[in-house]
Amino acid sequence: MNLLKVLVINPGSTSTKVALYEEEKEIVKTEIVHDIEALKRYKSIIEQFDLRLNAINDWIEQNNINLKEISAIVVRGGLIRPVQSGTYLVNDIMLEDLRRGVGGEHASNLGGLIGRAIGDKHNIPVYTLDPVAVDEMEDVARISGLPELPRKSQSHALNIKACVHRYAKENDIKEEELNLVVAHMGGGISVAAIKGGKIVDVNNANQMGPFSPERTGSLPSMKVVDLCYSGKYSFDEMKKKIVGMGGMVAHLGTNDAREVEKRIQNGDKKAKLVFEAMAYQIAKEIGRMAAVLKGDVKSIILTGGLAYSKRLIEIIIDMTSFIAPITLYPGGDEMEALRDGALRVLRNIEKPKIYS
Question: Where does the sequence pass through the membrane (predicted)?
Fold first, then answer.
């Protein structure tokens, strides 16, 4: 029997993660770090295509990877149109939307383009899995206080869904029978209400919910308006204050939770207050999502890089354990989640969805 081999490509802002798996076994995994000055020369993300493709081709050659043996390529999903959860074939319509940036500019938009460039040349199918654009929200959750500003589903869907798959498998429960609250806690924070395995409500990690290491989360709206019209900041500067320079960065000058915890251990009272406020807001958001599920919650799953913080977890557990048992899945390997999505299709457990 020929073993299934999956090539995984995950472009980030300044690096591209690549990995080769044989079934579930990792053969080789690397993070290709791109030269910052070289990236600055490009006016748009899409213009980085050749640079990143060439770097990946060099990596393939250096590791003696025979592309004729690859069963599938799977890439991180970009900012496409709203889609249901699942594994999608990267088709021509998706490629066009990635080139145009219909959902915005992000390095992940390059994943499908690079994957297809390699796949087309070597006749390999290319898939993507649970992009940020996954939208399973109920209509009642979309309404905001302004008709012009509906709430939109954008979340860390890849890791959230991977946690749902994992919990269902470990507890021998069908996903469609699962109600969970999943809190992905990293550079951005997504807290999702899972009903019957679907993300029926979630805060937009760029604009709402708890503040995070580098994002503001929800803000007092009238004060935001005042700040925008104060004359102190440009349009781009305001966007950067909200996503990238908000949250812990704004308060403490760092987005590294480990550094903040060291400061706390050394007696820094401000660092302690800000860190505890972040945990407080995460716990409060978990309570909001538990209300969406009317308290019918099988478990609260805490995941992402911040789930390694014992201090943070203890505060959240203290505030939320009355709702449901806590399950810890610290970290969250996007590469393995992407691999598993491709393997489910290759093993005929799932049928690939068609983007249109």
Answer: none
